[in-house]
Amino acid sequence: MYKIVRKRVLNPTVTMMDIEAPLVARKAQAGQFIILRVTEDGERIPLTVAGYDREAGTVKIIYQVVGGTTMSLNDKNEGEYIQDFVGPLGRPTETEGIKKVCIVGGGVGCAIALPVAQRFKELGAEVHSIIGFRNKDLVILEDEFKACSDRLTLMTDDGSYGRQGVVTQPLKEAIEGGEKYDMVITIGPLIMMKFVVATTRPYNIPTTVSMNPIMIDGTGMCGGCRLTVGGKTKFACVDGPDFNGFEVDFDEAMLRSTMYADFERHEREEHCNLFKKEAE
Amino acid sequence: MAIQPKKHEMPVQEAAVRARNFKEVALGYTPEIAVAEAQRCLNCKNKPCVAGCPVNIQIPDFISKIKEGDFEGAYDIISGSSSLPAVCGRVCPQETQCESKCTLGIKFEPVGIGRLERFVADYHNVHFKGEVVLPQPNGHKVAVVGSGPSGLTCAGDLAKKGYKVTVFEALHLAGGVLVYGIPEFRLPKDIVAKEVETLKKYGVDVETNVVIGKTLTVDELFEDGYEAVFIGSGAGLPRFMGIPGESLKGVYSANEFLTRSNLMKAYDGGSHTPIMHAKNVAVVGGGNVAMDAARTALRLGAENVYIVYRRSMDELPARKEEVEHAEEEGIKFEILRNPVEILGYNNPDDRRDPKNGCVTGMRVIKCELGEPDEKGRRRPVEIKGSEYEIPVDCVIMSIGTSPNPLIKSTTQGLSVNSHGGIIVEEQTGKTSREGVYAGGDAVTGAATVILAMGAGKTAAKAIDEYLSAKNN
What we know:
The structure holds two protein chains of two kinds.
Chain A (H helix, E strand, L loop, with lengths): L1 E10 L2 E7 L1 H6 L5 E5 L7 E9 L4 E7 L3 H7 L6 E2 L1 E6 L10 E7 L2 H14 L3 E8 L8 H7 L2 E6 L6 E2 L3 H9 L6 E5 L2 H11 L6 E4 L15 E4 L2 E4 H4 L2 E3 L5 H7 L4 H19 L1
Parallel strand pairs in A: 8-9, 8-12, 9-10, 10-11, 12-13
Antiparallel strand pairs in A: 1-2, 1-6, 2-5, 3-4, 3-7, 4-5, 13-16, 14-15
Chain B lengths: L14 H4 L12 H8 L9 H4 L7 H9 L3 H9 L5 H7 L6 H4 L11 H15 L13 E5 L3 H12 L3 E5 L8 H4 L8 H13 L3 E3 L10 H6 L4 E4 L5 E2 L12 E3 H8 L18 E5 L3 H12 L4 E6 L10 H10 L2 E4 L1 E8 L14 E14 L5 E5 L5 E3 L3 E4 L3 E2 L33 E3 L2 H4 L4 H22 L2
Parallel strand pairs in B: 1-2, 1-4, 2-3, 4-16, 6-14, 7-8, 7-14, 8-9
Antiparallel strand pairs in B: 5-15, 10-11, 11-12, 11-13
């Protein structure tokens, strides 16, 4: 059992937790992920490491409440325990030789982008961050990004905060304005990453994407997380989660991500109905 | 008294009934049937059966105890050689091992050794109320990586010699392939849990949720005071064929399909892990895993389940009993067929159509058997122009695995072969790195439970010799 030592609500649908897991905290690096189960009969879900405190032995996770499992995780409070927590899994983000980087995060993906930005800052790179959200209420981690970015651009779809528009606009402006990035790293919804890649491709700027497909074991055993990258089958859990964005087949990944959409909807409704019953 | 020429039949659930439930297919001998079957053993002098057993169980001795009605005595003899008797009695391919060597088998059917082993283990698990005799601790620590059949066997043997053994398991539950791979109807999970509990009674610690190569490395295990490490991390990444359509929704590796159903209990309506309840399913491959996947799909409610295999029935690598059970349950064998393409749905007018990307069929090509290959198995040759389509909504690829790179890539000095399997000295399980031993699928690639157990046993003996010599 793994203790929830801290829980902080970041916005109405996104929550941050620090989980006591000393072995994982000792090894975790930016770009890696963990797998957790909330309860004895729960499903295994992957969540990217959003931070770690090696001394305190805690690992930070940030999740969006989307399905049955994240709902039951969200029901847990500080001091309570979750059933399983294993990691760190996957390969850390490559940082070698990168002096100037643009981090492009979208929605809850910003939670994963943050430790990557922090890591580059630590290594002395120039960090430009572009983070995008649907509206003001959903903005998360603005202060944290400010602290580790040499330049921060915050976008909202509806213009209720920051600049109005999508993340690819300021990215394109920066590139055309003469910013020479060694690497663009993008983390967020598949469709956003697809467009970021479309933006950088004409300029041939190396672009890394962080993939988060459906997974079970996280150690290469099941193959459920497979993607087509450069025409080859790759497993996100052991070969990734970071991949060369120019090679990822996003359309296929988007189709595969909907495999259990019906089941998820059902789980979510069931969970909400349970709540309703409790409330009555 | 004349010898009964045939084995006593194994009582089983009716095919039509069991094809729709996940309860165990074979029900096991009663004490009366067991004694009667034991009477068939000639107790011959040269005991060829023992040599046919990868862990050398003293077979005629335990059968003699059954004849006397001393079932616990029989258990003591089996457990002297095997740490997992209830498992082996169920999943070993006895027809190619002990039973294939049985003297009685020259003229008649061999003694039902596997069935008797299972009977003895089940009898013990139900009736034994005593305490295990704990060995004197010798103060030495050994780490075992992976809690599958090789790891559990190695751990059990070393614990019984007084070693303090810790087993590290990547998943949340101990048992490896016994819990994620082999289905409930063939190996009930409470039997595996019971065998693990027995090992714990001998002082074995099981640490779940630790991925060696990630959470901890082999080097760190040595730093933590473990004096030897056994790697039984199993086979790794599932293989795909590389044909078009393998990324469509409804295409699984057998590992994923079985893990969802077995480990994550998706077969049980209350599980939070989804699995596809397909109507028409094609399973590609002919091994035990393919049979397990096909029979699982059937039990999840499929109307038609096809085994698509490129050679003939004679070459099916699966255990004979599993093939027979599958046929009885209504699995259809599309033999001498090779998949060429998996077909999917695409609605050009609506990109958001939820059916987009779902499997609608599989194109296969007919094959005939040609010349034998280097292993002596006749090679399938495709017949030009014989392609046709099988309408399915789910395809399960069960064509083997390639070794997992996690441990290799984080352990200096560990040699692997061109397939990625860890290289060991066969008689000892010793790897190229001092104090590190390995066995099971991590070494051989996908093989059987009992071979993995044999390797675990071999390594336990070698580790004991190594540490005894080192500490003297």
